[in-house]
Write a structure and sequence with these properties.
Keywords: Cytoplasm, Initiation factor, Protein biosynthesis, Repeat, WD repeat. By secondary structure, the protein is an all-beta fold. It contains one helix and 28 strands. The chain has one domain: Methylamine Dehydrogenase, Chain H.
């Protein structure tokens, strides 16, 4: 079955000149934040794709974006060696945290008071996971995190906050997943189910599960507290991003080849579709075409009635599901 039969015409968001690196919905789902390799963070209305504004100031490619629980502040991390905090409504820069290397991942905890971000292993600097408490202006002023965790073995390539803001779940270049305590920085749990880099980690809406997307052509579902491996979804291409539906037992995955090899293949062979898998049966039941290049990130709307994908082609596409999609059920 092609999933396109249960999709309305997609809304195309054109606001970036280079490939999209991450897209994020706010908690209510009325806004989408997108960042790309072109120094600008955009915010859009998810209902109609209208651009609300931009966050200007970075001077390098942006790798990550996050929005806090009440859509007050926005956090961005960039290859210009800085992590910046913005006022969501006005676009004003509230804080700039300088680092020694590119900021690869960033995120607010559930309260919106603690932020974490990780830096790349490059130019002689190792990878660090930093925690700042925004309630303490001195930390921001002195650019001194209350906790810094060195990751000597393998750099962090993706990270999300776990439930209750007690730890960060990080995916590494070597395929490992670690839980880093937000209080002590110690590794609480460690698993290695992937044998190549983890490109993306996303949580379920209730934070009980996380889904990984890996270069080893698979995506896996884990319990976010115990890191027990629950399900696996296999494809024949590297997976760049994966998301869990908040209302259905479905996951969506996006990927394709390495950007370097893209020019040598037609869009059909390149496998640039978003793929839908059943979360319980691990079976693929649909694909959605659209992007002219690999899909770099996918995200479900918090109400589960639409999803977005951001591609190497610089476009973000919002796909709304037809009501019949919600009646769809795989035969056991």
């Amino acid at each position: 079955m092609s999933c396109s039969c249960v999709l309305q015409k997609p809304i195309l968001l054109q606001g970036h000149e280079r490939s999209i690196t991450q897209i994020k919905y706010n908690r209510e789902g009325d806004l989408i934040f997108s960042v790309a390799k072109d120094t600008v963070a955009n915010v859009w209305y998810s209902v109609n794709g209208e651009r609300l504004g931009t966050y200007n100031g970075h001077t390098g490619a942006l790798w990550c974006v996050d929005c806090d629980w009440d859509t007050k502040n926005v956090l961005t991390g960039s290859a210009d060696n800085s992590c910046r905090l913005w006022d969501c409504e006005t676009g004003k820069q509230l804080a700039m945290l300088n680092t020694s290397s590119a900021v690869r991942t960033c995120g607010f905890d559930f309260s919106g008071n603690i932020i974490m971000f990780s830096t790349d292993k490059q130019m002689g600097y190792q990878c660090f996971l930093n925690y700042f408490d925004l309630r303490d202006p001195q930390q921001i002023e002195d650019n001194q995190p209350y906790l810094t965790v060195p990751c000597a073995e393998s750099k962090i390539t993706s990270a999300v906050w776990g439930p209750l803001g007690e730890f960060v779940i990080a995916g590494h270049e070597n395929g490992e997943i670690n839980q880093f305590s937000a209080k002590s920085g110690e590794v609480l749990k460690k698993v290695k189910e992937h044998n190549k880099q983890i490109n993306d980690i996303q949580t379920s809406v209730d934070l009980t599960m996380v889904i990984t997307a890996s270069k080893d052509c698979s995506s896996k579902l884990f319990d976010s507290t115990t890191l027990d491996h629950i399900k696996s979804f296999k494809t024949e291409r590297p997976v760049n991003s994966a998301a869990i539906s908040p209302i259905m037992d479905h996951v969506v995955m996006g990927g394709g080849q390495e950007a370097m090899e893209v020019t040598t293949t037609s869009t059909r062979i390149g496998k640039f579709e978003a793929r839908f898998f059943h979360a319980a049966y691990e079976e693929e039941f649909g694909r959605v075409k659209g992007h002219f290049g690999p899909i770099n990130c996918v995200a479900f709307h918090p109400d589960g009635k639409s999803y977005s994908s951001g591609g190497e082609d610089g476009y973000t596409r919002i796909h709304h599901f037809d009501p019949q999609y919600f009646d769809f059920e795989l035969e056991a």
